[in-house]
Amino acid sequence: MADTDLLTEQNFARFFTDDARIYVRNALRASNPAEMVTHYKAIAARCEAVSMVLPVDHELAGADVAFVHCYTRVKENGEERDDEAMACADLREGKIARFLVAPVS
Fold first, then answer.
1. Which of 37, 38, 40 minimizes the C-alpha distance to 50?
2. How far apart are CA 79 and CA 87, in angstroms?
3. Is the dihedral of CA 55, 56, 62, 63 positive or negative?
4. Residue 100 and residue 83 in contact, taking contact as beta carbons nearer than 8 Å
5. pLDDT given for residue 67 in this prediction
6. Which 3 state secondary structure label does DSSP give 12?
């Protein structure tokens, strides 16, 4: 997260519905764009750097669902690692309504 000033409710609302939920390992992490700000700022506070590795390994999308197999490059406590995950997004009217993340590693 190069610029944490971009972690705003308005920016999340561009991509997520007002009642969107984010789950990681089946645990609810955020239930609306305002809570997403808190969630992602907490991650940014404990990590020196966080970024998606692009392009993603695999992706598949339809009108109301999308899947991705991806890696997130994280630098935390001076050590760098690539966290692998599978993610599924339920879509409503072109926005993410539910985002499920299942870390692989």
1. 40
2. 24
3. negative
4. no
5. 98
6. helix
Q: How far is residue 82's CA from residue 69's CA, in Å, rounded to a whole number?
A: 13
DSSP run (H or E) holding 85: strand 79-92
Contact 61, 88 (CB under 8 A): no
Token digits for 36? Answer: 């997403």
Quote the DSSP letter at residue 6.
G
CB 37 within 8 A of CB 9: yes
pTM exceeds 0.70, yes or no: yes
In this structure, are residues 98 and 20 in contact, taking their beta carbons and an 8 Å threshold? yes
pLDDT of residue 5: 86
Output the pLDDT for position 2.
65
Tokens for 4? 């944490």
Those residues of the chain that have pLDDT short of 50 are none
